[in-house]
C-alpha cells in the first residue's frame, strides 16, 4: 500500500497561519502608512481663497498671511488633518506684533502635489527661506502642532530659529506608531519618521512645549522623551486633563503661545522648566 502523506500537527498549522497573518498585517501597515499619516481630503480649498504662495520646483504651496507688514514673522505647521486657515482670526489676535504664515502642506488646502516626509520637510525650508527674504531684519518664530511639530523641529535644526513652540509633540513618528502597535515592528516598517528628538538634540534656542496629559494620539510618554532629549530645559505648560484635539479649547493655550513669542515678556502662564 502507498504510504499516506504526513500531515502537519495542528499546532504547527495554527502557528503557520498566525505567522502568515502577522506578516500580512505588517505588509499592509507598510504599504498604507502614507494613508495613515496624512489626511488631506477634508482640507482642500480653491486657490482663489488663499492670499500667499511659494513656488517649489514645479508646484505651488498656498496659504494665508495674517497681520502683514510686521517686522517679525511666525510660521505655523499644523496637524495631519488640520485646516490651518481656521487659525487666522485667533493668530491675528495672539500675535499682533508678527506677520503669521499659515501655508498648507503639499496636497493640503490649495497646495499642489502629494504629501510625503521628504517633500514636506523640503517645502518647509523653502517656506522659511521665502519668509526670511520678506523679513530680512526680523525674528522668525516657529509653531508646530502634532505632525507639524516634526516639521517645525526640522526647520529649527536647519535654519535660525530663536523661539520654537511645539504642541503635543513626539520624539519620533515611528516611536508613536510603535507605542500604538507594540506587537508590530513599526520602527522597522515606517519610512515616514519625523525624528524630532534626534533633530533637536543640539538646538540652542528657546523651546515651549504644550503637553496634553490625556493625549490618545501622541502618548504623553513620547512627548516626555522629546523633552528629555533636548539639550536645555524647555518651558512646559501641562494641560493635564486635555486630549490631543481639545488642548486648544483651554484659554491658557493661546495665552501661552502669545506670551512665549513676545520675547520681552516672561515665561508663559503655568510654564515650568523640564
From TrEMBL:
Report the Pfam families cross-referenced here: Abhydrolase_1, Abhydrolase_4
Q: Which UniProt keywords apply?
A: Hydrolase
Q: Which SUPFAM superfamilies match?
A: alpha/beta-Hydrolases (SSF53474)
- Could you name the domain of life of the organism this protein comes from? Bacteria
Its source organism is Pseudoxanthomonas kaohsiungensis
The name this protein goes by in its record: Alpha/beta hydrolase
Q: Locate the transmembrane regions by residue number.
A: none
Domain AB hydrolase-1 stretches: 73-175
- Residues covered by the Peptidase S33 tripeptidyl aminopeptidase-like C-terminal domain: 205-269
Offer an example of a GO molecular function term for this protein: hydrolase activity
Amino acid at each position: 500500500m502507498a504510504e499516506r502523506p504526513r500531515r502537519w500537527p495542528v499546532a504547527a498549522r495554527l502557528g503557520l497561519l498566525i505567522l502568515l497573518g502577522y506578516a500580512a498585517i505588517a505588509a499592509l501597515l507598510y504599504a498604507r502608512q502614507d494613508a495613515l499619516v496624512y489626511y488631506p481630503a477634508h482640507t482642500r480649498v480653491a486657490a482663489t481663497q488663499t492670499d500667499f504662495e511659494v513656488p517649489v520646483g514645479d508646484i505651488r504651496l498656498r496659504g494665508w498671511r495674517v497681520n502683514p507688514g510686521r517686522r517679525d514673522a511666525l510660521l505655523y505647521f499644523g496637524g495631519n488633518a488640520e485646516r490651518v486657515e481656521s487659525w487666522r482670526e485667533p493668530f491675528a489676535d495672539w500675535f499682533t506684533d508678527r506677520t503669521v504664515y499659515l501655508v498648507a502642506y503639499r496636497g493640503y488646502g490649495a497646495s499642489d502635489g502629494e504629501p510625503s516626509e521628504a517633500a514636506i520637510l523640503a517645502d518647509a525650508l523653502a517656506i522659511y527661506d521665502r519668509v526670511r527674504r520678506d523679513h530680512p531684519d526680523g525674528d522668525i518664530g516657529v509653531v508646530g502642532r502634532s505632525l507639524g511639530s516634526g516639521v517645525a523641529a526640522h526647520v529649527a535644526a536647519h535654519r535660525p530659529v530663536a523661539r520654537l513652540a511645539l504642541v503635543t509633540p513626539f520624539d519620533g513618528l515611528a516611536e508613536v506608531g510603535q507605542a500604538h502597535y507594540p506587537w508590530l515592528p513599526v520602527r522597522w516598517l515606517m519610512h515616514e519618521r519625523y525624528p524630532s528628538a534626534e533633530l533637536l538634540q543640539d538646538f540652542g534656542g528657546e523651546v515651549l512645549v504644550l503637553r496634553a496629559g490625556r493625549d490618545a494620539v501622541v502618548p504623553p510618554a513620547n512627548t516626555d522623551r522629546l523633552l528629555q532629549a533636548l539639550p536645555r530645559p524647555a518651558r512646559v505648560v501641562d494641560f493635564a486633563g486635555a486630549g490631543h484635539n481639545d488642548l486648544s479649547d483651554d484659554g491658557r493655550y493661546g495665552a501661552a503661545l502669545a506670551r512665549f513669542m513676545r520675547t520681552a515678556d516672561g515665561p508663559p502662564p503655568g510654564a515650568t522648566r523640564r
